[in-house]
Amino acid sequence: MTAAEVSQALNLTDLKDRSWSIVASSAIKGEGLTEGLDWLMDVIKDEQLMSTVRAFSAPGKALIAGGYLVLDPAYNAYVTALSCRMHAVIESREVPAKSKITIDSPQFGKGHWVYEMKDEEFRVEQVEGDLNPFVGAAVETILKYVEPRESFNYHITIYSDAGYHTQQDTRAVKSGNGAKQFLYHLEPIGQVAKTGLGSSAGLVSVITGSLLSVFKKSSLDEIKDKIHNLAQISHCYAQKKVGSGFDVAAAIYGSIIYRRFHASVIDEYFQNPKQEKLQEIVNNQWDFKHVRCALPPGIKLLMGDISGGSETPKLVSKVLKWKNEDPNTSKLLYENLNSANMSLVNALDQLHKEYEENESNYRDNLNKFSTDSIISSNLQSLVNSLHDIRQYLKKLTNLTGADIEPELQTILLDACFTLPGCLGGVVPGAGGFDAISLLVVESKVDQILNQTMSDSRFSNVSWLNLHEEAEGILEENPADYKDLSA
Q1: Is residue 277 within 8 Å of residue 230, measured between CB atoms?
Q2: Closest CA to 340 of 293, 290, 301, 395
Q3: Are 282 and 233 in contact (CB under 8 A)?
Q4: What share of the chain is helix, strand, coil (3-state, %, to 5)?
Q5: For residue 287, what are the CA distances in angstroms to 61, 262, 280, 377?
Q6: Is residue 486 part of a domain?
Q7: What is the pLDDT of residue 293?
Q8: What is the CATH number of the domain that holds 406?
Q9: 428 & 357 share domain
Q10: What is the mean pLDDT of residues 223-247?
């Protein structure tokens, strides 16, 4: 096998030193193809880990099933990772008198923060930029965990995909090789409306992942659980409360069946915020569930931004207050809602099996699907489970006074069910006026988009150009982010 053939087989066009392929070719000739390729990949991996520039990305999220129940470790939730990603390009620079970490977000005004390490206790001082609790918490937590003994100077550039924020008053900027495109905003970052797809969790996760990877000179697979634990702690610290954690879990692990960790894991550190305690907690195996999952082939998640507004903490507060005041009614409703959620998970699993057993018949059933005549019993189960989830969330709305599925969203979701190929939908996460999530037959998406464009019932809906993402945090090619300056 020639050097050129090795380069082509492994897509080595971006390697600066073409001698890798020459050396690999020799190894392959002497040791055999498999041994030679394994050796080469180990060399490339080592080279990447020692590189002065690395890039990472982490996805957004949508909680399809498990709203409110996800707060309780007794229940599972179905969390879909989304194709809108938060990106971080980290570069090692010449070390100054004081070790520091600089973070820039060039897509927004006032997106600049500089942190210096103050003393041997690894305390952090912000010396430039407005306060950003999520960025600050990620930096401070990682330094306390790593305890870096050598001086450092890391520069991180953050990019966020278009799905996270409103797209008004923006202009698109492409990277030099055309691999990445981001929208640049005129307003400061704090004044740009968000879509509720997990931007803060993605931000904390990608900063944590990039810093831990370079400090430890490790690949993501080697330290993914530690990245998760650190990101959860940082995110909770920034929010000043221990949340369910599903958004961070999706950012790290991708689409998952999720059952949360016990809040006491993080509370234990907050009560004793010492480095030794942080390291102990992060290094321990947490008792939580994250099993990979995916939507069946031919079924697509369609997200609609409603451009409304919901304050999740207030919604959650109302539900928890009612739950404490009426434990018997709440327990019964939670059990019924959980049963509907698990029916959804089971229906999706059965559709996967149906596809594997007879792909042709499966796709024929999908293509023939309509709300009047459902061909597959598994499709019927999926439709029924989405309907039941909505009914129980509506009951929760009425009992708690929290706008989980408010009347305007009920009218909209009912209208969505009349669309061609719509299997059903929910108000994702904690509910409210932010968004809707639909499961639809993929081949009908264009028809749905065209039909809703001229239908006044959908005048407040902006369909987001997103899809389900299987993978969580990933290492990216730094070359894809070059020449992105405004």
Answers
A1: no
A2: 395
A3: yes
A4: 50, 20, 30
A5: 22, 7, 14, 36
A6: no
A7: 96
A8: 3.30.70.890
A9: yes
A10: 97
Confidence check: pLDDT of 28 > 60: no
What is the rounded distance in angstroms from the CA atom of residue 413 to the CA atom of residue 438?
A: 9
Which pLDDT does position 333 carry in this prediction?
98
Residues 6+ apart with CB under 8 A from 84: 59, 60, 160, 161, 162, 163, 164, 197, 464, 466
| Residue written as token pair 């409304």 | 308
DSSP 468: E
Range of the domain at 142: 53-292+471-481
Nearest to 180 by CA among 88, 295, 288, 77: 88
Residues 445 and 398 in one domain: yes
82 shares its domain with 36: no
The encoded tokens of residue 1 equal 């096998």
Strand 153-160, strand 100-104: pairing: parallel
Q: What is the pLDDT of residues 45-100, one digit of tens each?
A: 555 555 689 999 999 999 999 999 999 999 999 999 999 999 999 999 998 888 99
Strand pairing report for 435-441 and 468-469: unpaired
pLDDT at 16: 41
What digits encode the pLDDT tens for the residues 120-155? Answer: 778 899 999 999 999 999 999 999 999 999 999 999
Supply 340's token pair.
């509907």
> H helices within 132-263, ranges in order?
133-146, 199-216, 220-239, 246-253
3-state secondary structure of 204: helix
pTM, full prediction = 0.88
